[in-house]
Structures are given as structure tokens and as C-alpha cells.
Specification:
- This protein has about 120 residues and is an all-alpha fold.
- It is about 60% helix and about 0% strand.
- The chain is built from 5 helices and no strands.
- Helix 1 runs antiparallel to helix 3.
- The radius of gyration is 30 Å and the shape is elongated.
- The termini are far apart.
- About 0% of the residues are buried.
- GO terms for molecular function: protein-transporting ATPase activity.
- It is found in: Cell membrane.
Length: about 120
């Protein structure tokens, strides 16, 4: 299970880095307006409209892969079994209240103290 979590974490990291790179390579909507009036060069590797479609589809694929890995890691992270070694402080406190004290041990009163009420 640890190998699967490490693999999903690596895929998530690579998809996040690829998504960042793809978003930075895309042109803004204002860049096309300036290129149409001749102020800038609109040539690109994939053509005038092909670059936006290729880059936007690649970004969507990376985003969906990132989301799937995030959900998978959240599911696998919630499936950990609580053992006595890895339990939290709150779990130990609930366990101590549920288990009665051993024989010979002094029981701590949980309810109101009747001696405190008679001091008036």
C-alpha cells in the first residue's frame, strides 16, 4: 500500500509541474487581439488556433490526472488502521475511560463529589 501511495504522489507531482508549464506556455486572450492588428508575431509551433486547442486539452488532461491522484491519496490516507503505536492522544483518553481500572487500583470518581456539597 505504501508503494501505491508513493507512486500516486509521484504522478501527482509530475502532473502538477506539467500543468504549471502548460499554463505558462498558453497565450492570454489579449495576445490574439494585438496580433490581429499587426503589433506582434502570431506564429507558433502548432499554428494560430492549434496551439490553444492542444495546450488547453493537455492542461485539462493534467488537471484531471492531478484531481484523480489527489482523490486517491485522500482515500488511501483515510484507510490507515489505528494501532496502539500510532493512536492519538484523544484516542488514548477515550480508551482509558472505557476500560475499567484493574483490581487493586484506586478508582477515580467521575460523578459529583458528595463531600463537596456538605461543606456549606
Amino acid at each position: 500500500m505504501q508503494v501505491l501511495m508513493n507512486l500516486m504522489l509521484a504522478v501527482q507531482l509530475l502532473s502538477a509541474l506539467a500543468m504549471i508549464g502548460l499554463v505558462l506556455m498558453q497565450h492570454g486572450k489579449g495576445a490574439d487581439m494585438g496580433a490581429s492588428f499587426g503589433s506582434g508575431a502570431s506564429g507558433s509551433l502548432f499554428g494560430a488556433t492549434g496551439s490553444a486547442n492542444f495546450l488547453s486539452r493537455s492542461t485539462a488532461i493534467c488537471a484531471s490526472l492531478f484531481l484523480a491522484c489527489t482523490l486517491g491519496l485522500a482515500y488511501l490516507g483515510g484507510q490507515r488502521h489505528v494501532t496502539t503505536e500510532n493512536e492519538s492522544v484523544l484516542d488514548r483518553g477515550a480508551l482509558q475511560k472505557a476500560v475499567p481500572p484493574a483490581s487493586g487500583a484506586a478508582a477515580v470518581p467521575v460523578g459529583p463529589n458528595p463531600a463537596a456539597n456538605n461543606q456549606h
